[in-house]
Amino acid sequence: NVILEAAAAGLPIVTWDLPFYQEILENGKTGLLVEAGNVEKLEEAVTRLIESPQLRAQLGAEAQARILREFSLERYIRSMTAAYDELLNNPPAGASGNP
User: Model-level pTM?
Assistant: First the structure.
């Protein structure tokens, strides 16, 4: 996902305010989310970034820190291991264990 990659690289992000992006970015802290389809708001947000090197640096650094904290490979492995352990230890009702 390009948003995850940009955040991991410490780049400032402007994107539509959609559920998937809301899971990754916090508006005003780790990126700028604008009303989906509102090109004027998108232009305003991009202009804010162009005019503020400090905001660009802040958003990029915060996004990178969040990605490294919340979406790391180690965290993914722990999450997947926990999910598989749960399934193995508590199979769904009606599961026989035979293919």
Answer: 0.74
